[in-house]
What we know:
Elements: E1 7-13, H1 14-23, H2 30-38, E2 42-52, H3 62-70, E3 74-79, E4 81-84, E5 90-93, H4 97-107, E6 113-117, H5 124-132, E7 136-141, H6 152-157, E8 160-163, H7 168-171
Parallel strand pairs: 1-2, 1-6, 2-3, 6-7, 7-8
Antiparallel strand pairs: 4-5
Amino acid sequence: MFDEREKIALFIDGANLYAAAKALGFDIDYRRLLQEFQTKGYMLRAYYFTALAEDQEYSSIRPLIDWLDYNGYSVVTKPTKEFVDATGRRKIKGNMDIELAVAAMEMAETVDHLVLFSGDGDFRSLVEMIQRKGRKVTVVSTMASQPPMIADELRRQADHFVDLVTLKQKLGRDPAERPPRPERAPQGEEPGFEDDFDDDED
């Protein structure tokens, strides 16, 4: 699947990976994640994409963002948008699909193998476009959750699919390392905001 001579880049859809790991009952240790994939080839870049609620005095995801920024990740953020849905409920949307797609297309010019940490079916056409440039794409998500976090069309399009559950021992954070974090936002996709996986508003 991986060739150590390859130049690789990681593209982490923060909210999607958080939701997948939570569905499998563990927290990602991002230091271990970076170390694991640095052994797979020559890593050029590891991107982490997430939206931030900038109007809050304290965001529960801010410590993670700061840590990633200082420990080898290229963090890409944008402010969340607040809106009221048809039922009158206040919702916060933070979709990073475009930002991730643009970065992936840019990096496709210089890397051999892209690793996408997301199960979002919207990325199928991005994966296809990157493959047309002669690059390999591995998708990391999970089929072990109920329902599966990986969209079938994305899994089929990828050159390789890695189920996150098979990486649990390698990437899971040791519970003894630090106390558990406080409870997340009600929707639970990622601390601090609700990611809108279905971003098409009618």
